[in-house]
Specification:
By secondary structure, this protein is an alpha/beta fold. The chain is about 20% helix and about 35% strand. The protein has one domain: 3-Layer(aba) Sandwich (Dihydrofolate Reductase, subunit A), CATH 3.40.430.10. Bound molecules: NADP nicotinamide-adenine-dinucleotide phosphate (NAP).
Length: about 160
């Protein structure tokens, strides 16, 4: 099984200047709990934005640069090779960014979609999803608190078969 995990604003923004825009520790906890122990597949820019491999996960980086190396990570040169690396995982995760989400949309079975109930300015977007292709199998709503400035909803969407 192959899944996308992403956090998007109401206007579909996911990033700006190769960084995340909002800080929501509760959503970061969801990301960590969901992906720990699994393969995480990301574009080179997202890897460099993180600045390090994420612990307790197999970090797979996609780049066209044949000389690229990153300690503690698997480096591949196509999305297909990345997916192949993760083929024995019960659930592999595409963790971004915009380019890699777009390329993998047609290949994935599930989306963990955190919808932040706020509009942000940004330069990187999540592709439009056709809601008719997906079944909502879980929904959790979170209100703002002292550590999490914005309200958000975590949806789990499974592709209709
Ligand atoms: N909100 C969220 O959930 C979330 C999650 C992740 C990331 N982000 C944000 O998204 C932004 C980064 O996204 P992005 O779209 O700019 O970059 P990206 O998707 O992270 O990485 C793009 C890079 O991937 C490599 N690549 C793409 N397609 C390839 C292919 N077919 N074959 C080989 N390599 C390929 C290229 O690397 P080379 O240039 O090295 O060849 C390309 O420059 C940042 O702002 C980040 O903070 C947000």
């Amino acid at each position: 099984m192959l899944s996308i995990i992403v956090a998007v604003s109401e206007n579909n923004v996911i990033g700006k200047d190769n960084d995340l825009i909002w800080k929501l520790p509760r959503d970061m906890r969801h990301f960590k709990e969901t992906t720990t122990g699994h393969y995480i597949i990301m574009g080179r820019k997202t890897f460099e934005s993180n600045g390090r491999p994420l612990p307790n996960r197999t970090n797979v980086i996609i780049t066209r640069d044949k000389n690229y190396t990153a300690e503690g990570c698997v480096v591949v040169h196509s999305l297909e090779d990345a997916i192949n690396e993760a083929k024995n995982d019960s659930e592999g995760f595409i963790i971004g960014g915009g380019e890699i989400y777009k390329k993998s949309m047609s290949l994935i079975d599930r989306i963990y979609l955190t919808k932040i109930h706020h509009e942000f300015e940004g330069d990187t977007f999540f592709p439009e999803i056709n809601i008719e292709d997906w079944t909502e199998v879980d929904r959790r709503d979170f209100e703002p608190d002292e550590k999490n400035k914005y309200a958000f909803t975590i949806l789990t969407l499974d592709r209709k078969r």
